[in-house]
Amino acid sequence: MNKLFSWLDKAEKVVCGTGFVFLIAFVFLSAFLRFFRVSMSWNIDLAMLLLAWTAFLGADVAWRSGQIIGVDILTRTFPEKLQRLIELVVYLIILTALGFMFVYSLRLAWTERIARYQSMPIPYSLVILSLAVASLSMIFSTLQKIRRVSLQLFGKDSSPDRRSPE
């Protein structure tokens, strides 16, 4: 199972990085061609599609690797067990929010399946699916974090680094 998650993590990083490179290229190309009065309206629409995918997948990459900013100014003075318990509660709240995001993004994608971009024959639902895919991936990442904190909280794991990536 860890091999699968490792492979998915690498694939997500490659897709995110490649999408970002193409996003920059499309925006630069559009600006350059506009200088010569050549209009490529599909360029901006495709760049926005790539922006949605890279932003949401990038958020999951940051979440999984512990790069999301956390404010622990209050909790760092608490005992270790209480810190873990608060961390577990926060992860459960995040998991619930991600579950709602996943369900409602699928519903919205189904609703918008007929609407298309004006400049491309691509449905809007493809953009909305980026949220569904990223929230599902973040659900798996959050479940791994919950598992790790639960093992630490209940004495099965004594590793001191609670923010290390899986």
From TrEMBL:
InterPro entries: DctQ, TRAP_DctQ. It is found in: Cell inner membrane. It holds the Pfam family DctQ. It is a multi-pass membrane protein. The chain crosses the membrane at residues 14-36, 42-63, 84-104, 124-143. One of its GO terms (molecular function) is transmembrane transporter activity. It comes from the Bacteria. One of its GO terms (biological process) is C4-dicarboxylate transport. One of its GO terms (cellular component) is plasma membrane. Keywords: Cell inner membrane, Cell membrane, Membrane, Transmembrane, Transmembrane helix, Transport. Residues 23-148 form the Tripartite ATP-independent periplasmic transporters DctQ component domain. Belongs to the TRAP transporter small permease family. This is ABC transporter substrate-binding protein. It comes from Marispirochaeta aestuarii.
